[in-house]
Amino acid sequence: MNTLKQVLSDKKVWVALVGLVGGIAVALGVSESTVATVSGGALSVISVVMLAVMGVKKAKSTKQTASDPEQPDANDQESDGLG
Q: How far apart are CA 46 and CA 14, in angstroms?
């Protein structure tokens, strides 16, 4: 199941799928302008969705691996001129 998730979260797979469907549509006689319009729209949507998915994945991995933020101690404040 994890392998399927990895494949479906790869933007290259979706781009290849849109290209395949577009090629088949042209071969079946759909006008090239319609195929170009639909393919362009699909690729735009895929890009935005994949960007969001990757952002969520990155946020989850960062949250899991991040330790507690450092608390500045008195020596750090003095050296910065803030204390």
A: 7
